[in-house]
Structures are given as structure tokens and as C-alpha cells.
């Protein structure tokens, strides 16, 4: 597998509808956000599933280890066989 690709492997448009695979929406129950025009709506936060993106598009396993005491996150990358 070549890592010197010149074409994008995935593009993310935050204005597009969530695709259900790489992009998910978290709807925070009970929370609302002002829309700036005097109204409010349910809080929806989109996020990109980078673990799935790395596995499916790059063949790389991605694991995150969090040490809350030291406020440190370690990202482990390993090529899938």
C-alpha cells in the first residue's frame, strides 16, 4: 500500500447529512442551543469516526490510551495484516 497518494481518501463536509458510517451525530438529550434568531433547537454534534476511517481507508488500526492523571493521550497506530 502506497502512502504517497495524491487523491483524497475521504472528504468531510460538516454541512452534509451524517452518512451513518464515518460521520455520526450525537444528540444530547435535554439540551438546547439558541439559533441566534430568538429560537432554540436540540443540540446535535457531528463527529468523524477516525478509527473506522483509518481501518477502512488506510488499513491501520488506531487505538487511543488516556492517562487522566497526567492529562496525556497516547495514539497507537498499527498496520492491519
Structural category: mainly beta
The H-and-E topology, N to C, reads as: EEHEE
Strand content: over 45%
| Rounded Rg | 17 Å
What does this structure look like?
The structure is a single chain. The strands form two sheets. The chain has a two-stranded antiparallel sheet. The mean pLDDT is 80. The chain has one helix spanning 50-58, and strands spanning 23-34, 40-48, 60-67, 72-79. Helices cover 11% and strands 46% of the residues. The chain starts with 22 loop residues before the first strand and ends with a strand. The protein is flat. The chain is built from one helix and four strands, in the order ββαββ. The protein is mainly β.
Quick structural summary:
With 81 residues, the chain is mainly β.
Write the layout of secondary structure elements.
Layout: E1 23-34, E2 40-48, H1 50-58, E3 60-67, E4 72-79
Antiparallel strand pairs: 1-2, 3-4
Summary tags:
flat; two-stranded antiparallel sheet; 11% helix; 81 residues
